[in-house]
């Protein structure tokens, strides 16, 4: 989507290795979010940020950490990847938090 | 616990007919509701929303209805078109403007809509 990019788009990694996914925005929006999408579960919030260096946990945060050192970048790190973290990860941004997010195109992560 | 539920995993309709997608929620603190549409290999895109002070919001072929007493919302698509075939997610949020929890969305599981020509 224009204004928000995720990298990489696809990644295969081995169990136990660290992985970092990047979300970059050019909209200068305050709020940024990381979600994962899994069959039967829809989209579940992992972590979110409401400003630079201000982050908080979502409903499925175990095994994940985030960092936001500048407005445009929100990083999601899997400290030690497990097979249960195989998923599609979406980043989203919002200016007000109230009128809908803009989502990135997603990162498909496979942990083998 | 699933605070937002879409109990129909899939829905199939004929082109030109009405599509009705349903969503139920349990958290009475939710005061803003949204629908998103998702095509394969793409991120979800915002479709339509409704505040809890309203019971209906319309945008072209899309109308969202909110029944607060039943904690139920629905999305009507009339007339349905083959290009509407996608996964539809409902989402809900609560919170005060500008607060740290503002805008956190809770999503349902999604409903796959297939519109046949």
The assigned structural class of chain A equals mainly beta
Considering the protein shown, what is the CATH homologous superfamily of chain A? Immunoglobulins
Q: Termini separation of chain A (Å)?
A: 29 Å
Distance between the termini of chain B: 38 Å
Could you name the CATH class of chain B? Mainly Beta
For the largest beta-sheet of chain B, the strand count, sense and barrel status come to:
6 strands, mixed
CATH fold category name of chain A: Immunoglobulin-like
Q: Say what oligomer this is.
A: heterodimer
Largest sheet of chain A: 7 strands, mixed
Secondary-structure-based class of chain B equals mainly beta
Write structural notes for this entry:
The complex is a heterodimer of chains A (112) and B (117). With 112 residues, chain A is mainly β. Chain A has no helices and eleven strands. Chain A has one domain: Sandwich (Immunoglobulin-like), CATH 2.60.40.10. In chain A, the strands form two sheets. In chain A, strands 2, 4, 5, 6, 9, 10 and 11 form a seven-stranded mixed sheet that branches. A four-stranded antiparallel sheet of chain A has the order 1-3-8-7, with no helix packed on it. Chain B is globular and about 40 Å long. At the A-B interface, β4, β5, β9 and β10 of A face β4, β5, β9 and β10 of B.
């Amino acid at each position: 989507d224009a204004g928000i990019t995720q990298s990489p788009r696809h990644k295969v990694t081995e169990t136990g290795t660290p992985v970092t996914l990047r979300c970059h925005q050019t909209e200068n929006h305050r709020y940024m979010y990381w979600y994962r999408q899994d069959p039967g579960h829809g989209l579940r919030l992992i972590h979110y940020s409401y400003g630079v260096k201000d982050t908080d946990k979502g409903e499925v945060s175990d095994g994940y950490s985030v960092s936001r050192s500048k407005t445009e970048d929100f990083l999601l790190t899997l400290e030690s990847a497990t097979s249960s973290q195989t998923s599609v990860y979406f980043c989203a941004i919002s200016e007000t938090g109230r009128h809908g997010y803009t989502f990135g195109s997603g990162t498909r992560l496979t942990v083998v | 616990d699933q605070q937002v539920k879409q109990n129909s995993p899939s829905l199939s309709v004929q082109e030109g007919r009405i599509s009705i997608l349903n969503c139920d929620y349990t958290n009475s603190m939710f005061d803003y509701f949204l629908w998103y549409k998702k095509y394969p290999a793409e991120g979800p895109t915002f479709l339509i929303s409704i505040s809890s002070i309203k019971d209906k919001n319309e945008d072209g072929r899309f109308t969202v209805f909110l029944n607060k007493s039943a904690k139920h919302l629905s999305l009507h698509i009339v007339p349905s078109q083959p290009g509407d075939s996608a996964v539809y997610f409902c989402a809900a949020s609560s919170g005060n403007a500008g607060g740290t929890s503002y805008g956190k969305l809770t999503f349902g599981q999604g409903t796959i809509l297939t519109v046949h020509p």
